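User: Predict Serine aminopeptidase S33 domain-containing protein's structure from this.
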Amino acid sequence: QNFFGGILNLVAPKAKLVDAVRPEDMTRDKEMVQDVKNDVLFNHGKTRVRTGLEIKGAMDKMDAANRSKIKIPIMILQGTADVTTSITSSLDFFGDIATPVEKKRFYKLKGFFHEIFNDPGRDKALKLVTKFVASGFTHMTDDAHEAKDGIVELD
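Assistant:
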């Protein structure tokens, strides 16, 4: 894939070969899905070769060695029904960062899709982020939801 992607990038960087994300996979909110389908600025169809390679290159730079340099407070929220981003990869990233466990949280939001702030039940996610930001990036969760490894599952 890297080999052919590199060649295609040289001869046809604007070729659209990789399937883009389907709007139906982004949110359970049917009205939002329809808005995305009607949005001319949203990439419908396939993604360009160069775009795909640039994304892959950026992700490659976030290898374990670079992840271990991250020491700032961090909050990651991901829906358990997200089919566009691997929750396993997100958890690997979370586990590799050097932020102390008391300053990092990974929230698994049960049933949420990729766009958690455009999904039904978004208020739950917004409250978590609002509390985190208002606390100066120090408040992670209520004591009832604490987890030793920093991972919290919410219904």
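Residues 65-154 form one domain.
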